[in-house]
Amino acid sequence: MRHIVRRELLDHLTSLRFALTTLILVALMVTNAVVHLQTHPERVRKYSENVSASHTELKSRTQLYELLRKGPGKLYKRPSALAFIADGGDAFLPSKTVSAGSWTRYGSASIWAMGVPRLNMDSISNLRPTATVIDWVFIITYLLSFIPLLFTFDALSGERERGTLRLCLANSISRPALLVGKFLGALITVLIAFYFAVLFNLAIISTESWTQLGGADWGRVGLIVLIASCYAGIFIAVGLIVSAMTRESRLSLVVLLLIWVTVVVFMPSTLGTLSTKWMPSVQTHHQFRMARGKTFDQIKSDFLNKRETLRERRQSTETSQAEVAETDISELEIQREFVSKDMEMREQLSREHLAAQSAQVLRARQITRCSPAAIVQYALESMAGTGFNRHLHFLDSSRLHIRQFRNFIVEMDRADPESLHIIGIRKGMSEKPVSPAAIPIFQDKLTFQDTLNPAIADMLLLILLLSVFLAGAFLVFLRSEV
Predict the structure, then answer these.
(1) DSSP state string for 123-191
(2) Exposure pattern of 243-282 as b/e (b: 16+ CB <10 Å)?
(3) Residues contacting residue 391 through CB under 8 Å, at least 6 positions apart
(4) Among 5, 136, 335, 377, which is least packed by CB within 10 angstroms?
(5) How far apart are CA 414 and CA 430, in angstroms?
């Protein structure tokens, strides 16, 4: 087997297709690195400026009521340091959370509520690996599936044509050993060209201080390279299957080209388009606003009825000063109930609207996973910290921070014995100033585990496909005639 691998490597490394492969991969990786160096520093600078302005505005509020009414402000998503690996369609995904509108009608001001930015469903529904951005996803999904076919289409059929396959098997070489030798020879050849281009890319990117990678980032890069290697192995196995089934290398090449176009180009885009038509339509933004308006009208109507009933009761009876004070507190409680319910309904409707949109995108992704190209795209997006899963993680982190932010306000109010502890109403909350240093600050963090968890299923699928196609190559070659 060692002799077969050495022979295959020598043949491949001295061929014209290996030189052209290396040249194309290096050229694309250099282009990717140059574009990233031109765009990433600007994204980081803009993010830093937005976060700094948001923190300055937040720390300028020293009253609990103002903190509750205006909330933590806009929360921004940190740009991924590995965006050059997987763009993830971040241009079509919101980069920050937004607050629902605050109003002061009917004598009350509503509490700040976390609104969910509207997704561009038309752009997100384009689920195929995009060819408009030269990132690693494009290079891997297209080239690292096409190049292995060029090195394997004649691996067995070519030797069968020349008669060398019969001569080779006449010696004490088993078919499994021959197949494994050819598989390893082709895989090592493809990975030499790919790894060389990757090292070139990372060397260029590391020259800029704005794009320095941390320890966790290098760990993610290592896993991404392993995912790409597994993906290349799948198409090498496919190439060996077809080459073992055909007796002419020309026929093998035509069949493999048809398989590549179908699996890599046609299936992801077609299944992604069809899946959105099979699914129930998502509520449009206009329909969402109309439904939200009806809900708010009902809340306001209930509030006005309760307040009017309380005032009529107060006017119809003679009350003492103590009873008047108690009535005033009751009215404050009604206002508190109103603003709290108003905030809760705004956030609930936003969450439900996002959940409906997310469910459609995730179901479409499940369908497009019939293609290895889509599987590797989603795995790379998850590991790079970009794409739709990253956006959902950012929204979950934002909700957790907002919950902590509100708990902080409640605890500070409880610590004031002079407060009425009626959260949401200016008269019912503490008026003691709050230290700016004590206000919780949102920090968008993404750990290695956060990127690995969504990618595990896709990584296992790739390993399963590699095992299935490699086993298929063994079965076909064992039963084929030489």
Answers:
(1) HHT--SPPSSS-SHHHIIIIIHHHHHHHHHTTTTHHHHHHTHHHHHHHSS--HHHHHHHHHHHHHHHHH
(2) bbbbeebeebbebbeebbeebbbebbbebbeebbeeeeeb
(3) 77, 93, 94
(4) 5
(5) 8
Q: Determine the residue type at 345.
A: M
Backbone phi and psi for residue 142, each to the nearest 5 degrees, phi listed first? -90, -55
SS3 state of residue 63 = coil
Return d(Cα 372, Cα 462) in angstroms, integer: 7
Burial class of residue 235, CB neighbours in 10 A (0-12, 13-18, 19+) = buried
Q: Using alpha carbons, list the distances in angstroms from residue 136 to 6, 228, 447.
A: 29, 9, 21
**Percentage of residues of the chain with pLDDT beyond 70:** 85
Rounded CA Rg of the chain: 31
Instruction: Report residue 324's pLDDT band, with 50, 70 and 90 as the boundaries.
Output: very low
- Contacts of residue 468, defined as CB under 8 A and 6 or more positions apart, other chains included, come to none
Domain ranges in the chain are: 2-479
Q: Tell me which residue has tokens 């932010």.
A: 405
Query: Are 135 and 452 in contact, with CB atoms under 8 Å apart?
Result: no
**Residues composing the chain:** 482
- From residue 382, alpha-carbon distances to 137, 407, 457 in Å are 12, 31, 11
Mean pLDDT value of segment 419-441: 85
Strand partners, 96: 76
Q: Which residue has the higher pLDDT, 228 or 330?
A: 228
* Predicted TM-score (pTM) of this structure: 0.84
Name the DSSP class of 42.
H
Q: Which of 143, 257, 131, 264 is nearest to 197 (CA)?
A: 143
CA distance 363 to 279: 9
- Phi, psi values for residue 131, rounded to 5°: -100, 0
CB burial of residue 204 (10 Å; 0-12, 13-18, 19+): middle
Does position 253 have pLDDT exceeding 80, yes or no? yes
